[in-house]
Every structure is written in structure tokens, then in C-alpha cells.
From TrEMBL:
Name of the featured protein: Alkaline phosphatase family protein
Stored Gene3D superfamilies: Alkaline Phosphatase, subunit A
UniProt cross-references to InterPro entries, sorted A to Z: Alkaline_phosphatase_core_sf, Phosphodiest/P_Trfase
Pfam families documented for this protein: Phosphodiest
Originating organism: Paractinoplanes ovalisporus
Coiled-coil positions: none
Stretch list, region Disordered: 475-502, 688-707
Amino acid sequence: MAISPHEPPAAPVLRSWRAELRALLSWRRILNRLRAVLRSALVTFVVLTVTLWLMPGVESNDIVDTLGLVAIVAGVGAVLRPLLLLGITALGGWGAMLLGVIAQVVVIVVALELDPANRISGLPSLVITAILAIIGAAIVDWMADSGTDDTFVREARRLMRGVRRRQARLAGGPVLTFRRPRQGAEPGLLMVQFDGLSEPVLRWAVRAGNLPTLGHWLRSGSHTMRGWHTGLPSTTPASQAGILHGATRQIPAFRWFEKDTGKLMVTNRPRDAAVLEPRLSDGRGLLRDGGVSIGNAFSGDAAVNLLTVSHAALPGRSARGWAAFMASPYGFTRALVLGVGEVFTELHQARQQRRRNLQPRVSRSGAFLALRPASMLLRDVNVSLIAEQMARGAPAIYCDLVDYDEVAHHAGPARPESMRQLESLDRMLGVIERLAPEAARRYHLVVLSDHGQSQGATFRQRYGESLDEVVERFSAGDEAEAPESPAESEATEEPEFPEPPVAPLLVVSSGNLALVYLTKFTERLDRAAIDRQYPRLIRGLAAHPGIGLVIVRDADGPVALGTSGSHRLSDGTVQGIDPLLPYGPRARYDLLRHQEAVHVGDLVLISCVDPVTEEVAAFEELVGSHGGLGGWQTDAVLVHPARWPVTEAELDGPDAVHHQLVEWLAMLGLRTQPPAADDEALQLEHEARKEIFERPGSPRLSRTHDG
């Protein structure tokens, strides 16, 4: 700014300070601060009064003394919390989680120790009183907000403003400013994944009016909803390998066996995900240009990875969103307290299912009691991390929220418990929308899912035995003597991560998809070779009522076998009754594409599917499952700004979604190199699909959904 010749040199500085004072002393800011202080004081007074009344041996609970204690708590918190936040930020990771809880206890303990009335004495009593006070404060705050996320939003806004002011100082801005940063003008893309949500379920929930945020977007015309087909396998790691890296074929299932190394791979194990990441990455992932991955299986070549499984680390010192969430009394501690409430809610809902004899259902005890509150905690952490990265101005952010998927597995994809989790995710979108004005960019929101879920009684519930037991029964006494191969011997030669010996016939299940491996052979076997080893196996599995499809390589290519017929996938030749009919018109192409995946089993099994209810029989003990074909598990969803162009009328497969998202990034100017129009891999994919579906005589069915 130019200085007028009649203006003293100090005038610009004085004007700047006046602007700062006006920002600091604005009536709206003063009113909001007074309201926050009064509320905090009232909550602290109520909580301390009740806590001291509950504590045995407390002789006096005078109101004046308690008001003095409230002032002491406020003073101690004002002094200690910034210091503890510095410690939490420095520790990062697990240390931040531990110190985050301790910080809240320390503030109350120090305040009680300084209490002139000296009503609590002794460290054990002080700690117990502090814990009770913290629990009470979390409950009262939640009730005061009427179960909303207002407090969480206020804390997130404070975090975002702090991050942006710090960035401004590092960029040469003023050391101290009271003016709130304005929203940035540059575009950004925020992609939020609702894990396990099918397009029909989301469409029904919107029509029912249960999702106010998404419903408003769709009804106002700002966004539009479209379904997309996941193909096989319909599971998170495979979908994210495609969405984030365009490399779906590297992952044949959620779990699989690798004959060349003799290892069983499980994609939610960090060490296995770390092995897979280099196989997926070619340096051109969805998030390569300064993007951020939050809570995903793989990184998408992101510059920043937070809670990403393949990187196997908690956020470190640079993630202030992690530290702020852990340090805040409205963050980790509040989530822990409300998480305990989720456990009791789960116990009540499971009991209701049993009393009403609701079918199908599975046990909802054990590890799931911990998974449900953990997923809620992870959701709040993820949103806090999103807020921080929006304040930092990350050009692209991709975050996976798993609440709905975890509950739907055990309760059912459309049951009230699952819909409640979906409603909470919709509230999180509302939180993000409220936080958008504090961001360093003008973010566009895209909401998508990685797969759906299909409901049904499990395979064991229906037939009284597991798939492993069925395979063992059909292979008993049939195994021919075969020399030991490196695959079997090397399976136990990993000193760092020892694994149990691998069975000669290994069944690896993922939902209602199972891969069967003959582990004594390093190569993939065809039908004739399997029949020589286990003459009754293939025929027995194909005839079992709980197994809808057995896919095996034959002399003329892969063939799908059913109870009353077969379907040769390469040319569509059908003998008897077509076993693919219950699985829809895409089944043939999905199975062909899956046969090209690396490390696919010698046999691929898909459970039966009811043609009326579209229920499947999961090989795992899950009432809501995914991984294979049948039902809504392959019906994912994409919600995006309505005016954005979509290259393909039909998005088929996660790789196609990847290319679409890359094109949108390029459209926003967030991609350093626009996607090539003649991408060879995508072109081959289109040609293969066109050849299959346009060949004369190819089966065509119209897919219908119940309701």
C-alpha cells in the first residue's frame, strides 16, 4: 500500500492496530465469548456440585466454595492446557492419546488441590473425583447441545483459525492478529467415502427424509446422485486400490493366499497393506499432487497420510488436528464417554433383536462391542483431521468413514441401528459444511461409497457347517500323494512374522466370496488337475445348495458351474440352466475380469442368492456381507456437484471412478498433468466390455430390486 506524502509513516501501523482492535472488540465476538464462558462456568458448577455430593467423606458442599472452585478450574485450565497441548503435539501418536486423557484429569486434580476448602484430600480420591467430573462434563455438554455437534464445531473452528494464523505468520504475516481469516478463493476437492453404503439404501434414506444434509443438496439441485458398479470383488481394499490407484486387479479379495511366497494376505493388517502399496502405486495416484489420505487402506500417492493402513502409524507431531482433538475436553475424552454409551446401546439393540426373534441375525457380542465405539471415535478424529487439512489448504482430501459398514455387518444393512449410523454420517457432512468458511480453499464435496452390502442368514446358520467343513468333507480321502513344493515349506519360514503351517487345501473367505487354493502347487491349477487330486471336490461343491457358483479354469477358459448347468465365460456358452441368471446381467463380465486378478484361487466360490429377496449366504458370520456377487453389495454410489461433466454414462468398476475423479481434479486445476485421452488400460477395458455385451446371443437381463 502506497503512503501518502501528507501521511506520517506510522499511520498504516495505527490503522492496522485499529482494525485489530475493532475485530477483537466487535459486539458479536464479545457476546459469543461471554456466552461460551457462562456456559462453561455453569457446566463446571453443576458437575462439581454433583461430583462432590457423590464423593464419600465430603463434609461441606457450600455454593460459594463451589463457585470459587469453578474459578480455580478455569484459571488452572487457562494456564495448564496450552502447556499440555504443546506436550501432546510434541509426543504425537499413542503418546498424544494417553496424555490427552491425562491432561483433563491433571487440570481437575490441580484445581482440587488448590481448593481453599480442601474438601478432597489424598491422590486416589483426587483422581477419582477428577474422572467423575470429566465424565459428568461430557454428558452434560452433550445434553446441553441436545445431542448435536455444536461444541465439536466450535472446537474445530478454533483449530482451523489457529492453523491458518500460524501459516500466515510463517508466510510473513503479522505475529499477532485478532481478525478471522477469510475463506480462500482457490478450489479444492474433498472426497468423503461412506464405507459399505449401497445406492438403493442411500436413495431410500434420502426419500424418507432421514438425511437432511444430503437431502438438501439433492433437492436443491446442487448435487446429483448416481450409482456405480463395483464388480468383483466388492470389498474396500479392492475398491480403494481402484479408486485411489487405478489398480483393482492387484487385489482378488479381502483375504487371499499367494502361492509364490506361501503367505496369507489380509488387507487390513498394516504389514500386508504396506507390502501391497508398492504393487499398486505407479506414482500417478489420485492424491499425488499434494493430496491427503485420511483413514484409508492405501495412500493414493498422497503427500500426507493420516491413519492410512498401509503406512501403519498414528498421526505424528505435524498433525495439529490429532493433538487438538486429544487435548480438548470436547474431543477424545468426550468420545470415550459417549463410546461407553454406544456399548450399552448396542447391548440393548442386540437384546431387542433376540426378543423379537428378528431373522436373519448374528451374535453382536465380543469384539464388535469394542468396534462400534471405536468406529465412532475414529469418525470424530477423521473429521478433526479433515478440518485441519482444510485449514492448511490441501488441494485434494480423501477420507473413509467406516461407522455404517461396521454396524451393518452385524445388524443388517437396512436395520434401524445401521440407519442411525448413516444419519450420524450425514451430520458429519453438515459439520464439514459448517466448517467450510474457515478453510483456506473453496472446497467442493464429493460423497461416494466403495461397495454396498447384502443381507442374509450365514452359510453356517443355514446348513449347520462352515464352508471349510464342506470342503474338507468333499476332499477327505481323495488327496493324491504330491511332492512338497516351496509354497508349503516357505509358509513357516518367516521368523519375524511366524504363521501357522498352510493346509494342502486352503479356503479363504471374504463375505460370500471364497477362494480355494491347492497350496502344494506353485502354479494355478485347471479343472483336470484339481480332479486328479480331489475327484469329488468340484462336483460336490457345485451341487451344494449353499454354493451358487464354482468358477474353475477349463481347457477352453474359465467356466462357472452351478447345480443344474454351466456357463463358459469366454464365449457365453450355456449348458443346462444358466447359473449366472440370479446374479444379474453383469455377472459374466465381473467373473471374467476377476479371473485376470493376480493370486486368484484355483477355485472361486460364490454363495447362493435368493432370486426374490436377493439374500446371500455369507461364508463368514456376518448378517450383512460383501465381497462377492448377489444383492446390493456391488451397487455403490457417487454424489457429486450436478454441473460437473461425467465422461461415462455408466461407471463400471473402481478404475472407472478413479479416472472420473482424476478428470474432475484436472478440471479444477488440481492435477499437474491432465489424464491422457487414449489411456491404454482404460481403452482395453472398454473394448473388452463392448465385445462381451455386444456379441450376438449374449445374455441380457434387467436388474430389479425389491421395493
